[in-house]
């Protein structure tokens, strides 16, 4: 047994499924999880001493790579000065100002401790502000694990959703309607069927939790028009896209301004953080200003703020990082598409900037229905061939691949050479 297998066996004695978040169990690829011991730049080491080029990147936060020195130093310094006070600190002011300066349209912002919490708070704000109850989400978009977001499509168009997890009540699920991603026609039908009832539409401006599915031209613009026309709010869940697509987030990147944003991942620099914010009039319903209650013992935590500030200030001070990330992403996507084409393997490589997914199906993948056509057994074989060559990818077809500033041009070329070897060698 490898050390990773031993640890996994021990973990299963005390932790449900041996992991603290289900995707870490590596079920889709059918092997023991990689137990990480250390990370540096683009690389991580596991409990068996194996080194990997890491493209999981902690699922999004690590745009600067592992143990980025300015972040690590900020964390240590903050911890030495007291890890938590439950009182306001200057770093929270700095963080809020920085987000408001970088994201056009964010006027007030509240820190929380996870993306899940950011989303459930933003939805409460939307309901409190509009006095309406229904929320519309898109199939294949993930917004954390709050009850109202663990909902799948109902039996027919424009009908209430059904629970997508045991423990979510039918009543709660009925307050969320699920729409196909990139389907403006279905969105219009939902609005027509629920006039004056929809509090908000929440969307990942780039779908990144069903594999990467960029918005079709005009999709986000249509959502903006429809919500405005119907008096509903538009929420961009930028937990992944925020400060990853650009310094001005997806809203700045696409030039579409929602009413509310949710953030997480990158703004915590690797520590547990989330935030929600937006228009001043909307956010003014939040307590103690207004009647919508939301609170948190560790919200705006000094150590987490220090980490997030160090990361965001690095990005602001070096905007060329985004150009380089885009070039690396482009090179990787183009290279992979050529390899699979040459080898006659049905695959569709999608992505944007530093995000990518290889769907093992003929593309394009525009929605979760399309994504589900992927050959997941082939993805598992691909994952294993990359893993044994020291390239660590998300252990599931329906996830993004994250490139960080720490990945070099050589890392990308090595990735491509591994994929080519695997594809040519008949491993896939
Ligand atoms: C990761 C993620 C969340 C949930 O964030 P957590 O910090 O894991 O609770 C919400 N929305 C999107 C788009 C995400 O990718």
UniProtKB/TrEMBL annotation:
Catalyzed reactions: (S)-4-amino-5-oxopentanoate = 5-aminolevulinate
List of residues that carry N6-(pyridoxal phosphate)lysine: 265
Domain of life: Bacteria
Subcellular location: Cytoplasm
Entry EC number(s): 5.4.3.8
Keywords, sorted A to Z: Aminotransferase, Cytoplasm, Isomerase, Porphyrin biosynthesis, Pyridoxal phosphate, Transferase
Gene Ontology biological process terms, A to Z: protoporphyrinogen IX biosynthetic process
Membership in a protein family: Belongs to the class-III pyridoxal-phosphate-dependent aminotransferase family. HemL subfamily.
Protein name: Glutamate-1-semialdehyde 2,1-aminomutase
Source organism (scientific name): Synergistes jonesii
Classification of source organism: Bacteria, Thermotogati, Synergistota, Synergistia, Synergistales
């Amino acid at each position: 047994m490898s050390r990773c297998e031993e640890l996994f066996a021990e973990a299963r004695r005390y932790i449900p499924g041996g992991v603290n978040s289900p995707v870490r169990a590596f079920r889709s690829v059918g092997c023991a999880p990689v137990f990480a011991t250390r990370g540096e730049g683009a690389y991580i080491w596991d409990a068996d001493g194996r080194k990997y080029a890491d493209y999981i990147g902690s699922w999004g936060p690590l745009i600067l790579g592992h143990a980025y020195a300015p972040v690590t130093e900020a964390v240590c310094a903050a911890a030495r000065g007291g890890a938590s006070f439950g009182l306001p600190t200057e770093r929270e002011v700095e963080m809020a100002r920085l987000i408001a300066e970088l994201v056009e349209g964010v006027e007030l912002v509240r820190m929380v401790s996870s993306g899940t919490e950011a989303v459930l708070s933003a939805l409460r704000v939307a309901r409190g502000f509009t006095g309406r109850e229904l929320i519309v989400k898109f199939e294949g978009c993930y917004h954390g694990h709050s009850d109202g977001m663990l909902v799948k499509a109902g039996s027919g168009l424009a009908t209430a959703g059904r629970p997508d997890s045991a423990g979510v009540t039918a009543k709660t699920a009925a307050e969320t309607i699920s729409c196909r991603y990139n389907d403006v026609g279905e969105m219009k039908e939902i609005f027509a069927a629920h006039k004056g009832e929809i509090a908000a539409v929440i969307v990942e401006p780039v779908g990144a939790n069903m594999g990467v599915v960029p918005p079709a031209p005009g999709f986000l613009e249509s959502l903006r028009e429809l919500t405005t026309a119907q008096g509903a709010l538009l929420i961009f869940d930028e937990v992944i896209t925020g400060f990853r697509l650009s310094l001005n987030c997806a809203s700045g990147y696409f030039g579409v301004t929602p009413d509310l944003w949710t953030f997480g991942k990158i703004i915590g620099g690797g520590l547990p953080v989330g935030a929600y914010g937006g228009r001043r009039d909307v956010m003014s319903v939040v307590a103690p200003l207004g009647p919508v209650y939301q609170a948190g013992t560790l919200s705006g935590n000094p150590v987490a703020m220090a980490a997030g500030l160090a990361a965001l200030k690095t990005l602001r001070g070096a905007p060329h990082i985004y150009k380089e990330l885009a070039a690396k992403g482009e090179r990787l996507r183009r290279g992979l598409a050529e390899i699979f084409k040459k080898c006659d393997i049905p695959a569709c490589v999608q992505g944007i900037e530093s995000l990518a997914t290889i769907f093992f199906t003929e593309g394009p993948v525009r929605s979760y229905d399309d994504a589900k056509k992927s050959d997941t057994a082939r993805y598992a074989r691909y994952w294993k061939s990359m893993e044994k060559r020291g390239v660590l990818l998300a252990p599931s077809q329906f996830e993004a691949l994250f490139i960080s500033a720490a990945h070099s041009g050589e890392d990308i070329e090595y990735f491509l050479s591994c994929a080519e070897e695997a594809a040519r060698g008949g491993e896939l």
